Amino acid sequence: MKLELRDYIKIRDFIYKHSGLHFEEKKIYFVKKRLSIRMKALAIESPKEYLWLLKYGDPDGKELQELINLLTTNETYFFREFDQLAVFAENCLQEVCASKEEKGNKTLRIWSAGCSTGEEPYTISIILLEMLDRYHSWDIEILATDIDTKVLKKAREGIYSRRAVKDVPEEYLEKYFIKNDDNYRVKSIVKRPVRFRHLNLIDEKKMRLIKGIDFLFCRNVLIYFDETTRISVVSNFYDSLNVGGYIFLGHSESMSRISTAFALRRKNGFIVYQKVED
Ligand SMILES: C[S@@+](CC[C@H](N)C(=O)[O-])C[C@H]1O[C@@H](n2cnc3c(N)ncnc32)[C@H](O)[C@@H]1O
Asked: Which residues line ligand 1 (CB under 6 A)?
């Protein structure tokens, strides 16, 4: 397949508009490879024709979804960024739960935004099982969302390879997984509070419906967006969080150029971001 630069730009601008995924000019070969998979499946020969199909022949967005599923980067694993999770477990979680309990509020709402194949929300679920006093007295929901429908299917299944669980402490591996040949199946007690939903983070209307979040994990997702999209997504995150709630970004992602609304908290040498006022 031949992909002229000007056609590439039109296609990648269309993708950006609908997903926030930002591909620079040098990513032409990455995008071209994925485009050619879809074009082959549809027996379409020219990129122009494919773009026409995306724009005018795909009213329910099915083809766009197929393409997005190929363009996302879904790398993830259990207990990724362990030290940051320790700060969540030992500091932030304890603080928020104590403050809620004091007010007689026993609900806990956590959001894993860009959850990929589910390792992150299930990790959070394990941490809660381990760290919460009187776990069963809490009403817990872990909302786990992604734009990619293919990863959500795998996440719901909850079956993982040895590689995905490599950083799970041995004790938790035995306690929270069922080993079957080379696979590890997440136990139902871990799955129970997790709700997987399809959500595009640039869909402002849907984003505005998500409220009352105590902890928001959006790790290793914003790197795929440009600054304009990051600013707008994080502004919606801010509105979704409760006062006192925390947001966790990936270690290579800093809030400094995105938002000044959050208070910076230093905990165990880590910087975490907290919403302190509405
Ligand atoms: C690299 S994974 C990160 C997974 C996990 N948060 C972690 O840190 O291990 C990035 C995920 O963000 C999702 N993503 C990218 N753009 C998105 C968008 N506009 N809306 C929702 N999810 C998106 C991708 O589908 C992918 O599964």
From this structure: 19-21, 72-76, 80, 114-116, 120, 146-148, 151, 199-202, 219-221, 224, 250
Asked if residue 90 and residue 33 are part of one domain, the reply reads no
Q: Angle 47-56/5-19 helices, nearest 10 degrees?
A: 30
Model pLDDT for residues 21-46, shown as the tens digit of each residue:
999 999 999 999 999 999 999 999 99
Examine the residue annotation and report whether 146 is marked as an active-site residue of this protein.
yes
d(CA 95, CA 220): 25
Which CATH number is 61's domain given? 1.10.155
The residue range of the domain holding 88 is: 82-274
pLDDT digits (tens, 9 = 90+) for 132-181: 999 999 999 999 999 999 999 999 999 999 999 999 999 999 999 999 99
Q: Is 162 among the catalytic positions?
A: no
pLDDT score recorded for residue 172: 98
**pTM higher than 0.90 for the full model?**
yes
Ligand 1 nearest atom to the CA of residue 201, by list position: 20
| Nearest one of 241, 232, 233 to 275, comparing CA atoms | 241
Percent of residues in the chain assigned helix, strand, coil, to nearest 5: 45, 20, 35
Instruction: List the structure tokens of 199.
Output: 């959500």
